[in-house]
Amino acid sequence: MTTSISRRAFLKASSLTIAVSVTPFGYTILNAAEKKDLKTFNPNVWLHITSDNKVTIYIGNSEMGQGALTAQSMIIADELEADWKQVQIRQGGAKDAFKSPLLRAQITVASASMRGFYEPLRKAGAAGRTMLIKAAADTWKVPEGECKAVLGTVKHEKSKRSLTYGQLCEKAAKIEIPRDPPLKNESEFRYMGKTMPRVDVPEKVRGKAVYGLDVNDSNVKELKGMLYAVIARPPAYGAKPHSFDRTAAEQVKGVVKVMEIPMGIAVCATSTEAALKGKDALKVQWDTGSLPDMDNAYIEKLMIADLDRQGVKVHEVGDAKKAIGEAAKKVEATYYIPCVAHVTMEPMNTTAYVQKDRCDVWAPNQNQTACQGMAAGITKLAPDKVHIHTTFLGCGLGRRAFTNFVPEAVMISKALEKPVKVMWTREDDIKHDRFRAPMTHRIQGGLDAQGRLIGWYHKTSAISIMKPVNPNAIKDGVDYYCLWGLWDVPDSPHWNDRIQYEIPNLYIEFLMADLPILCWPWRAVQNGPNAFAIESFIDELAHAAGKDPLEFRLQSLKNNKRASRVLETVAEKAGWGKAIPKGRGRGIAQHACFGTWIAVVADLSVDEKTGKVEMHKVVAAVDCGPVINPGPLVEQIEGGITMALSTALKEEVKFAKGGVATSNFDNYPLIRMSEVPEIEVHIVKSTDKIGGIGELGIPATAPAVANAFFNATGVRIRRIPLTPERVLAAIKEKKA
Amino acid sequence: MISLNVNGKTYRVDVPDDVPLLWVIRDHLKLTGTKYSCGIGECGACTVHINGKATRSCTIPVGEAKGKKITTIEGLPEDHPVKRAWIQEQVPQCGYCQPGVMMQVAAFLREKPTPTADQIISKMDDVICRCGTYLRMKKGIQTAVQIAGKGGKKS
Fold first, then answer.
1. What does the pLDDT look like over A540-558, one tens digit per residue?
2. A187/A282 same-domain check
3. For residue A189, is it within any domain?
4. Which residue among A657, A691, B112, B143 is buried most deeply as judged by most CB within 10 Å?
């Protein structure tokens, strides 16, 4: 095998930047000279084997607790046939090679880390293994077929010889990279499919994990002299400052600079506390903004009224109007799902250091491509001079894919020529969140004389997610981001994000609500609100047909093996159809998105005097195709269900005077330990294509709760959250 | 100058008395295991021990901590039953709230080494975890009780 000059040159050049960070968190790129004795073999962006027999794996997806670092490394290490003990895992920088083949950006969203990278990572590991075997065979002058890779060594059984990967790496680096290396059979998997402890857990438990807000000059020495900045931000949508007291702020001890930037008025200081005091001293006077009358009642009224407007047709098959008109039974219902906030435990923040010839950004982000592009735009540096250091994320939930927290720090650092950390306070983080888009749905359904679903006419209104960000993403007046779970474009990278039921006459229409509220994907995007409407309505139809909700669903899923299977599994595990204690209600729901199917049964009781809903148990069944790391998979579903219970029972952002009134956890109640029931998750064994997991706990949970509420009380809840006041009002209305 | 005893070491910091202890610990002492999340004592991510008592460092002025023994997550021994249990049960997801939660649990278990399930819930109902790890926390606490019962060190 010959080695081309360019390949050698590449290895030589890349070894300068790779040879390898040994700081605890992989931020600082060390000078190659410190590691000059080590030979490196890196057949691709992920994999680096060094002559000290270490396998370093760089992961381009962000780690926010979903276990991407561990699970993706398991795939590589498995196909590489590495010993897990020799593996060290690093968060990678912003690189084209880390861009998702599905999403065409380096972005950790849409439960796509496994969907996008399962095959590329298997090939990456297998390429390494194949090349190491060849290097050994060449060394021993024996056929490759007689050599075998076992746990970080290549063995030649016949002659009882073996060489470690570290010993082979220099030679392997000179071998041509195979395009289609042979992958292992499932029976040969060493790590995939078995629960492995997450590699990020020990340092998180020790308090040593570095999140964005923890970046300082003790863990990144280049940040000596770093300033701390906070920003006074407008209290209402579209509000502009008309006055503020710059002098008072600058007189606060420690305040270095007050700067007007497009996002507000930044106060930069030598400490967090001085920046916060300086911000208070600004006493900014703002104008009233673009829609000072807007509050919750205004939003809900407008979005319900929207449903009487003519919208844009999204999808039509058959003639739903006609079928429903001629149906034996007709059902109509209107649903409203309000804004909810991301409230990641770590508020938004970024540390930036802009120098003449480089820009470094430390950000807990889900979108390295956007971070790099934004920083390059502001600094006018070439993208390869902009270094994105992704820290651990104190929760992601989609919020950190919208990287509007990055430009602020870059702008300030550029102006002051110093490293700067911009911290959003919790109040900034909630009031300037981009919420899960509120939605209204009006659905009409028709049943034939046998109680079969024959027509579905669906109008929905939502605040557009993409319009303020990327108007080009709106296709003929439709923002498909708002429709995931109801309908999606045919070539969608999100796979099957649409209503699962087989309905002969189906019509879907979309309306864009004209409100200034800024929205953005929130775990599962609009699969949550859409599934709430679909799965509540299918329950209403089942009731109208006089059929069991499980049977009624299965009847319209005859050709949908995966949906049927998760429903049947969850029904069996939850004891569906068996008697339940008096006063309890049970509800079922299913949903498919991001290539995975889930069904949920919720079990609850309602105190009709206090209006309090008590959850007793939630059972889920999941089919996501091949499973990489089962333990964390179950944790993701548990966590997603818990978060969805929070939205079903408690969460709603409050608006007033054209802005966000909700400000902190004291007025945005979230689910607490006492409210979380037992959760049971069953994985349905499946050899189908691999699907996503991170967001799958969300969509089917809230409708299962509402359906269980109906089962317990006979009262249909068409608007979440089920707060005690809303529950009492609904029960009173029913009794009246 | 304020003199502080943190994790058995004495630090001298030049800050006014009214600065929340949280910022002093994080920014001045660079002990970033203690987290900022709400700033109003609602979530528990900033919990430290002051003279052994779980305290939310975001709402206590540094002046009030003078002369007292402060322990942060970094000062909780590595073999502490709570740390061991949190790893064993894989409690953290994003992990951001967990140092504060663990500090609250450690103080709680010192007071009540074998709590009932109800006592655990009522004590821990004032912490927030957005990843929804509450069930794992409960399990972690029970495991920590077992580890401590088998002679694990209790700080």
1. 999 999 999 999 999 999 9
2. no
3. yes
4. A691
